[in-house]
Specification:
The chain is mostly helical. Helices cover about 50% and strands about 10% of the residues.
């Protein structure tokens, strides 16, 4: 992600609620304090496909917002 972002291509990291603080911490430690991060509910594994699809659909607005900034 970092190399792609440095090349001028906007990138977004998707993470779950459980890992959002870790994701932000890692991004900061890698010199990306303004990394675009979209958070979805947890867990993905073991969750019914229809539920995950609804989470993704709900996250689309967040995705568009972080790409606009």
């Amino acid at each position: 992600m970092i190399e792609i972002e440095k090349a001028g291509v906007p990138t977004v990291v998707f993470t779950t609620e459980k890992f959002k603080d870790l994701t932000r911490s890692v991004a900061n430690s890698l010199g990306m304090p303004k990394a675009r991060i979209v958070v979805v509910p947890h867990p993905l594994g073991g969750t019914e496909e229809e539920v995950v699809i609804s989470w993704v659909e709900s996250a689309l607005d967040d995705l568009l917002k972080v790409l606009e900034n």
